[in-house]
Amino acid sequence: IMAFQNISALDGTRSFAGVDNFVEFFKGMFGQSDNVLLRTSFLNSFKMFFISFSITMPLYLLFSYYIFKKFTGTRIFMILIMLPSIVSGFIVALVFKRFVNVVFPNWFGDGFPDLFNDPNYTFGTCLFYLIWQSFSTSLIVYPNAMRAIDPQILESARIDGCGCWRE
Hints:
Elements: E1 5-7, E2 14-16, H1 20-29, H2 37-68, H3 74-86, H4 89-108, H5 119-147, H6 151-159
Antiparallel strand pairs: 1-2
């Protein structure tokens, strides 16, 4: 019902809009409008969807398998990945912002770009932070699911010649 209404920003009064909201949406999406925010938002959402399935999901599975097999350095790796879950999200966000705005420019010199304010780097910086934040949840779920696999199945695979990475 709200899709067919116009809501005044000044006093909140509502009026019937008909299909004007839908027309404005399609104009914004397909370039017949000066408003590029809608198109940019849609493209960024599509990028996030693509990155989630093509890059992030395989990384979740790879790191979960790394933890499941208890390779060298698993405990240190778990602390770095679980840090966003252990410490308050507000504190982690402040530490991340401090690293990006102060520490990295000090390490790499004055030519280091402003990752939060430069439009060429802002989306990538936010994307990196969101992926890092989401790792902790997936690294709790996936290794526990891998532990539910019957050990006899894994033993059978090893007897048949299946190596560590094929497992």
